[in-house]
Amino acid sequence: MRTKTMYLAAILLTQVVIASNAYAASTLEEANLAYKNQNIDQATQLYQQSLQDDPQSPDAKVGLAYCYFVKRQYPRATDQVNEVLAINSTHIRGLLLRGRLNMQSGNLVAAKEAFQQVVAVDPNNVEAHTSLGNALFGLGDEAGADAHYNTVRSLVSPGQ
Question: TPR repeat positions in this chain (predicted)?
Fold first, then answer.
């Protein structure tokens, strides 16, 4: 009898955990949709709520960081991105935002390095190649910039 009770309790606990994770994922999806629809205040609140449900969610942290970036709250955005990249140094969206934050602050060398990390992990990332081209152009490396702009052209219009 006791084994059956423990078994049922374990099943119930598993269902609660699954439901909790589904709720956190749902909140994150709502936050992503609000951000996509440019409702930044709502997205900020939803990302914060998602982090209450799952404090270690890298996607919620990066989403919140993007909201802070749009709101020009750069130190807060940087803090969120640094937390994510401390755990996962190849988180694509985190690296892209780090690069954008560095571009914003005028640190083109650091921006270049962040975008190079993205290209190393995801060589077909159009945003990374475009941004890397922009950073290189800003650093006076027109040939390097052109190489990345040409990569973007080939990725966007293959065969042309």
Answer: 92-125
d(CA 88, CA 95): 10
Contact predicate 128/115, CB 8 Å: yes
Q: Which architecture, in CATH terms, is 89-160?
A: Alpha Horseshoe (1.25)
> Which tens digit of pLDDT belongs to each residue from 5-48?
655 555 554 554 444 444 456 899 999 999 999 999 999 999 99
Question: What is the spatial distance between Cα 74 and Cα 109, in angstroms, rounded to a whole number?
Answer: 18
Distance of alpha carbon 12 from alpha carbon 139, whole angstroms: 58
Residue 155 burial (CB count, 10 A): 14
Residue ranges of alpha helices (H) inside 37-107 are 40-53, 58-70, 74-87, 92-105
41: its two tokens: 């205040």
Q: Which superfamily does CATH assign the domain made up of 1-88 to?
A: Tetratricopeptide repeat domain (1.25.40.10)
Single-letter amino acid, residue 12: L
